[in-house]
Fold this protein.
Amino acid sequence: METLIDLLLAFPLVFIISLLFDGIDRKLHARMQRRIGPPIIQPLYDFIKLFSKERIVPTTASLAIFTVLPPIAAAASILSASILLASLLFGVSAGGDLIVVLYLVAMSSVLVMVGGSSSGNPYGAIGYSRKMSMLIAYEVPLLLSILSVSLKVNSLSYYDVISTQIMTKSMLALAFPSMAIAATAFLICVPAAADAVPFDISEAKTEIVYGPLIEYGGPFLALFKLAKSASNLTLTLLAATLFFYPPVVFRGDPSFELTALALITCLVFALIFWFLTITVPRTIFARFKVGQAFKFYWLVALPLSIIAALLSVLGL
């Protein structure tokens, strides 16, 4: 019961932080292109505006699927980030929660695909096909990189991974070769998992007009956008804490006495990784083709993640 309360307390925090990070991303993206860009709280304005609009369902859509999936996707993404924040703030520990977090992030992506395909729009079906291809491309190396961490600390608990770094007073990625390689593979997978350019193949605004989201508007679109922002927060926060947790803040104390400072530090690291893995690539790269993206992940990210897992088994 206490764990549930902690997760519920983290929900509004995730809502605010994810939209704030999204706004900072848009601002930095604009500045890198020598534009002024929108205000940092623009995503919040967009969410409020979209949520106040009329709910429109296409006549060709499956009513139940089309309307039910957006809130489920948003809830799954927010819950995934809430699990991480609750661990950092309240020391919430649950066996296997790393698997749960990855499942919730993947679940959100799958729900977007299914919702888009249920609209009856051919562009939605194309987006579904492309998104499925991308999931196959990046999910395996993403999972293997997390598995490498679990093998290193002998636990699937997010709290245990954090505690290990606190007790050893060192970041995993800087202490072990296997973790450095796993971190590289994980960071490579983040842009695709975030549907960011050059891997936004499933949405591709200039090609298939947002793909799965083409028929969505109003509150439904607001919830899907919130789900994407929360998933991005989850991915970058995972990168910041699983591999590069700043142990000097805690002085080796596993009780998380400096919870506020811990959270702020981790969020700053997460924002840095958001900038490096989402903002920078979508600013300087053009969109890949499906085949190019698939080849990149299976020839670069997948071998790296396999090597990391093998080195973890060997204790390196």
Summary: The chain has one domain: 2-313. The chain has a mean pLDDT of 85. Residues 244 and 283 are 25 Å apart (CA to CA).
